[in-house]
Amino acid sequence: MSIKTEVAIIGGGLAGLTAAIVIRRMGFSVVLIEKKKYPFHKVCGEYISLEAEDILNWLGLPVKNWNLPIIDNFRITHPQTKDFRSKLPLGGLGISRFKLDDHLKKLAEIEGVMVYENSKVNQVTNGEKSHILDVFSTETFQIESDVVLGAFGRNKPHFATSETEKQTPQKGFIGAKMHIQADLPKNLIELHHFSGGYCGISAIENDLFCICYLIDSQIVKENKGDFQKVETSVLSRNRNLDHYFSDFEKRTERVSTAGVYFSPRPISNNGILFLGDSAGMIPPLAGNGMSMAIHSAVLASEVVKQFLLGKINKQEMVKNYESSWNSAFKNRLKMARTLQNIMQIDFATRLSLDVFNLAPSLFKLAARSTHGIQIPVPKIL
Ligand SMILES: Cc1cc2nc3c(=O)[nH]c(=O)nc-3n(C[C@H](O)[C@H](O)[C@H](O)COP(=O)(O)OP(=O)(O)OC[C@H]3O[C@@H](n4cnc5c(N)ncnc54)[C@H](O)[C@@H]3O)c2cc1C
Predict the structure, then answer these.
(1) Residue 338 lies in a domain
(2) CA of 91 to the centre of ligand 1 (A)
(3) Left if phi > 0, otherwise alpha if psi is -120 to 50, otherwise beta: which for 260?
């Protein structure tokens, strides 16, 4: 089997699904390939910054009807110092990826996007004008496409990884999350530091809470991959977490992901534009990887439209995307990576909390510099 399309998107997370809907509404044919089957749980803190509010509505998500928790207060704790609490400059909504990604996938299909689930792209080769994708599903097939968008998230497939990236050793983290029934304020997001990582907890739909942590992969390795042991022996050194993991009823199985890195990555490779985490991941403590994924999809859709209308060539498409990506995200990634480095050091985290308690405006400054303004809604015509 062989399929021809104008745009092929690898990966159906927030970046891929948003790009699919936007580009389809622009009038182009779109095929999206996702290796898993919707709906599925994904490691994520599930707090989406309100900078995505307009675009979520534009995409057609009935956000208002869902009565999602509005989260506008923040608390951070460290085992050896006083907690810091603050109002969030922008705030966010709590929604599970199980619900959000599945709904976007349905919207994409309604728009006419051909979505292949349970299908994995194994290779992309460049022809003279188009790209050929080898897809592995119940049967193998090929897709010929004028444009390819890589929205495969933080774990890059080999065909999209540059030689430099393959050779650079990286300090890796592991993420884990589950949904729990908790007796906590719904307008509050908490971040609890422990030696080797941090754990966030905030409300989502259906009166549930998402508890999600990021931990040095070495610690998980030392505990032979036993997450429950990690939770009771490492995370529990922060007394808040001790109580959260023992007292609150678990409502979903724990899901985990390895290979979480925060080093800068290329924004494109061989004419493929990278969206969302594929282009570099913002540390989760910033709480806006989801909005950035959506925003990058809007930026990519605009240059793809210019290219498919014949207004620019492929090289210009890549150059224009990289330039708009850099002006939207480069600085906030730098700031978030600095904060992540601080959070990796016990003493530095404790000191930061003390400083924030003395000068709360510094917290607001840090929070603002890792976020952007309202994501612009796409120009379709
Ligand atoms: C521990 C942790 C906590 C976080 N908490 C938050 C938070 O609270 N708020 C926030 O805004 N952000 C948070 N983030 C970040 C956020 O989850 C990501 O930034 C966001 O999911 C990026 O979306 P994406 O579409 O780029 O990638 P993803 O959502 O990862 O989607 C990529 C998709 O591509 C598919 N795929 C991969 N390879 C292939 C292939 N070869 N063929 C076909 N399909 C493929 C995958 O199955 C996946 O569905 C957190 C991240 C971590 C690790």
Answers:
(1) yes
(2) 20
(3) beta
